[in-house]
Amino acid sequence: MGRLAFPLDAELTGPDRVVLSILQKQYEAHGDPLDKASSEVAEESDDSETKHSKFVSPSPEDLQDQEQQAIAYLKNSNNPKSDAFEPTIFSSVDEPDIKNALLRQWIIDPYIRWARTVVRVETDVVMVTHLLLYSCTTLPSALYLFKNFHWWHAILHGVMQGWYMGAYTLLRHQHIHMRGVLSKKYAIIDQLFPYVLDPLMGHTWNSYYYHHVKHHHVEGNGPDDLSSTVRYQRDDVWDFMRYVGRFYFLIWFDLPRYFLRTRKPVLAFKAGGWELSSYAFLYIMFAYVNAPAAVFVLFVPLALMRLALMTGNWGQHALVDEMEPDSDFRSSITLIDVPSNRYCYNDGYHTSHHLNPLRHWRDHPVAFLSQKKQYADEHALVFYNIDYMFLTINLLRKNYEHVARCLVPMGDQMKLTLEERAEMLKRKTRKFTEEEIAEKWGKQYAKLK
Description:
Number of helices: 21
Protein name: Fatty acid desaturase domain-containing protein
Strand order of the largest sheet: 1-2
Keywords: Membrane, Transmembrane, Transmembrane helix
Pfam families: FA_desaturase
């Protein structure tokens, strides 16, 4: 039988555990060609108390029935009218796991009832939780640093922001795609909070919206995408540094130029205007208010965020199919892991997001299960036990064997040995020549001499 190389993380979200359980059972029902060493790793990682001497593969009918039950369960957990409805309250703790009766009666349940009226989608109570958290910690901390700067406070503030920035960015990711996350009653707060919090979290005003929604999702990692990976060798450190460096120093120029080239002058003016106005704000805060505070509160988060954004995007689009690189199934990946999905609003379901950018973050697991056969038929890549940052790091270290062990095989991938999987992944990091770009996307995209 097939076995995944690592045990399932105990911190996986409920939906992720359901999805991975279905994929695991499907793989177990299939013969495993992996070498003996891989099997031994899996055996050692089995934390169950009982070792079963015999495995009975479930029938296809059993698997299909379990899959349909899982889809129904996930849909009900997202449906406010269902008795099985489960809003997300906190990132670190699931709502059913909060057992204390007094805490539930006097704090948690009243808070949930109120917060469900604040958010646009009732599952998203966690967004209110996070906005309240930032308002009570980030904002007063930043203001006090500008008033009375201390080095120890600045360092602690930086550590706190480093913890917050990933989750905030994915909250904003939902915000820019849905044009808001709060109900109409709170529309003013919904529109204004990004202008207050974005600079504190390493973002320039509105740049995320113009680059991600109006540009990245239009080009889809194709040759005209400014964050495209296809012209880079994606396991090469030097190419990665060039990729990050271009975004770091030239995005203020490249994005407006892209909009002008594609005959969208209004977007060019807005994108350039907001980026430059953000730089002007940073300069004023540094030159005329409090330079040390500006460095720690504004400049350090900006530097870290831009590195994180490009490192993450490299991981999301590092493995591009050599045959159909313009396919959303084959130019992006799916991660079923804790950092991406528990703490960052299901960011691991990147293929699902590219298939439907307007899909709500809680709908990704059920959408994935519903399209599982198509994912398998399209040779999509699904991983677990690794996030985008560590995927990027492992690729740059050329540690393909570890990445291959993190693969959750689907369809024909189940027939591959570990070495064959590693070789397959290696092929998908090779940069495309201009001739290949002309062949795959069209001559208008290639820089042919």
